[in-house]
Amino acid sequence: MNKAKLSTESYKGVRDFYPKEMALQLYIFNNWTKTAKKFGFEQYDASVLEPAELYKAKGAENEEMVNEQTYTFIDRGAREVTLRPEMTPTAARMVAGKKRDLSFPVRWFSIPNLYRYERPQRGRLREHWQLNCDIFGSTEEVADLELISLAHQLMLDFGATEDMFEILINSRAEMTALFNDLGITDVEVINQITRLNDRKKKISADEYKEALVQILADETLVEKVSKLVNETPETHDTITKLRDLGINNAKIDRTIARGFNYYTGIVFELVDTNPENNRSMLGGGRYDNLTEMFGDEAIAGIGFGMGDVTMKDFLITHDLVPASVYSTGPTVVILPLESEQNLEATKIAHTLRQANINVATNFSHKKLGKKITDAVEQGTKYSIVVGSDELVSQTFTLKNLKETSEQVGSIQEIIALIHSSN
Amino acid sequence: MNKAKLSTESYKGVRDFYPKEMALQLYIFNNWTKTAKKFGFEQYDASVLEPAELYKAKGAENEEMVNEQTYTFIDRGAREVTLRPEMTPTAARMVAGKKRDLSFPVRWFSIPNLYRYERPQRGRLREHWQLNCDIFGSTEEVADLELISLAHQLMLDFGATEDMFEILINSRAEMTALFNDLGITDVEVINQITRLNDRKKKISADEYKEALVQILADETLVEKVSKLVNETPETHDTITKLRDLGINNAKIDRTIARGFNYYTGIVFELVDTNPENNRSMLGGGRYDNLTEMFGDEAIAGIGFGMGDVTMKDFLITHDLVPASVYSTGPTVVILPLESEQNLEATKIAHTLRQANINVATNFSHKKLGKKITDAVEQGTKYSIVVGSDELVSQTFTLKNLKETSEQVGSIQEIIALIHSSN
Asked: pLDDT tens digits, residue range A207-228?
């Protein structure tokens, strides 16, 4: 037997979720689920393991991404496997696989964990969770509006107000038309500008202009493109329609591009207005050709992803996590005074559970006071001490740990007391 | 761009969860969660990725298991990584890592997905989910009883009755004492018999006896061991105490061994009494030395795992899945008659959502009848048609799709109708 001491650290760049961290994680997942269902989205899931070809299929750019930024390995059957880095290709694969059986429009959501092989740095994890919401099988503009409305509602359902975040909208198709109006028609040039715009907020104005000169080699054109990208149109049809749906914090931002090369129409991001959190919290767009890679027939899609790490940062920065989230303990803790009462205490716990009450028994040898402190720390509401006196008289004391009040009665009376106070 | 047609199949040996399959999966997970909380267990989680050494640490037998039966690969930082094949080592790692901060006994549960590199065959998947429940920091017998009581309650909370399943109990320590009584004291011989007993139900009586002769080379001893292993003691302290806790379908089974070599005390399995499902549904036991590998101080543990695949088989075989589980649709579907009503329909959906009603809009170009059939198939309760007449009069018809009854009113009246019928 190997006696070397093993490390208790997790693998590099991933997180352990102890009960309190898990509670916050579940609070986020449950809120996401509730809001997605409010919009009629159905939940789906798939394995973390996907054939590597799923991510390579969109050409050389993706091949590089798969080789350098994903966990990809060869299994014993010589299959190349990737730990999914994003969910949209999986959703597209599943939709394409059952397109004959599905009733479009299909509204799907999932909360997958995703993997990226990145140099670990602050806030850049190798594993994170993401809410993915997609509508398949509709090219209607109203699908775009609905999805942005869902993004907005997700924030409101956490108690956020419109001043805390902003929705930035752009359109790949619209940008192409605007570039064409300026005489820029070369697809490769447009792609280069798009990629540059995607980085614009991370570089200085001078760096941006310099890079634009490199691409366009024409001072006048550089000025025109700069002006176009920097201006926010005062009126815009999408923004007007979103106002009709109660959304007042959306605006056009010509720099929004989204990294993935499968977007074809509208693209959008949701950002925290607090400058401390400058990363995008949610990003998505329309991708009308993605399912093409599975066959001849394309199914239109529009979707977004929202990460757990940025969501957590947002909720903490804006003080939106209710304290009750961290109550991970049961409703009642039963405290046998001596080991001799362990079995009787467990029987009482059993009786309470039959009445649908969440109960734990603390049969450790710690002092009673310490056991009560531990219960309070877990958010447990009541304690019941079980000693020989209580067992002889069959009369127990229900102690309310929050109000430090007490009530006395038989187990059946105590069950009634607990039920009546909920 | 690669134009080769990609497969829509998932990776070999894993499952896609379309909404109805996901609904059943979530029904199981939610029931598991509810029952675990009834016993005061707190939820935790960790990454699928673990350092490979976590599974190799218990010696050569495990080293072989890691190399041949797990997904293990080398990352770009030359770290050996394993996709977790079981959760107990992760739980032990996390408990050992925070042992100064945790208040024992710690009751933890998790629903991880686990990976095994196995030859795919019927019912043997490479990825499955498992409920893991563990109590750390207690050597009290009552902890063993509580955990078996939890296993029993998990089944009851799915609507199972005691005739549908059986709890088989054994004890590693007790078996060692019984073997010692027969004069068998060599640890390696006892381990050999234990491993043979673990396979006993899968081989014939003759094969069992033959293997026993190989191990013991003594006819009289073979007879004695056979007798010992085959008999179910009529009275047993553990069984008596479990009866006190309302459990009448537990019995001693001397063949129960459990595969993992970290068990030290009680071991148990839960099996379906229907002969069609002969696999163990739940297995666990006491492992008092597992955290030793992280340092000098051992923390006692007892736990079990319960798989999603066998659980599903059980529920389906015994007809325990309520039909309502498969209702994945929203409460209301709004049906615009023409594309021109899409935006107004979406506004009405928005108004209903503000009243906490789950709503989808079906803006496809299908016939109304087909849209209603689709909604019924998803378990949607109501439809509201939105045409130009309805928009002019601001009077809408709420159609109950289950009772095929109708009620007419303004949107606010319809909201009141929906709320009052829930």
From this structure: 999 999 999 999 999 999 999 9
Neighbours of B76 (CB within 10 A): 9
Closest CA relative to residue B213, chosen from B201, B229, B225: B225
Q: Which domains are delineated in chain B? A: 19-48+84-317 (3.30.930.10), 329-420 (3.40.50.800)
Q: Which residue of B has its CA nearest to A127?
A: B47
Confidence of residue B30 (pLDDT cuts 50, 70, 90): very high
Q: How far is B314 from chain A (nearest CA, A)?
A: 22
What residues contact A36, with CB distance under 8 A and at least 6 apart?
Answer: A43, A109, A131, A133, A150, A154
Q: List chain B residues with CB under 8 Å of A48.
A: 48, 83, 113, 127
Element housing A303 (H / E):
strand A301-307
Place of tokens 């543990």: B301
Span of A111-120, B187-196, B250-259, B345-354 with lowest mean pLDDT: A111-120
pTM: 0.96
Find all residues with CB under 8 Å of B97, minimum gap 6, and list them: A8, A9, A16, B294
Q: How far apart are CA A382 and CA A208, in angstroms?
A: 62
- Cβ contact, residue pair B330, A75, below 8 Å: no
DSSP B181: H
Give me the residue from A37, A137, A245 closest to B350, CB to CB: A245
Q: Which residues of A touch B294 (CB under 8 A)?
A: 5-8
Task: Provide, as residue numbers in chain A, all residues whose Cβ is less than 8 Å from the Cβ of B39.
Answer: 330, 353, 358-360
pLDDT value of residue A60: 57
d(CA B265, CA A243): 65
Residue contact B17–A93, C-beta within 8 A: no
Q: How far is B392 from chain A (nearest CA, A)?
A: 18
Tell me the per-residue pLDDT of A75-106, one tens digit each, with 9 for 90 and over: 888 899 999 999 999 999 999 999 999 999 99
Among the partner residues A44, A115, A138, nearest to B363 by beta-carbon distance: A138
Q: What is the pLDDT of residues A169-215, one digit of tens each?
A: 999 999 999 999 999 999 999 999 999 999 998 899 999 999 999 99
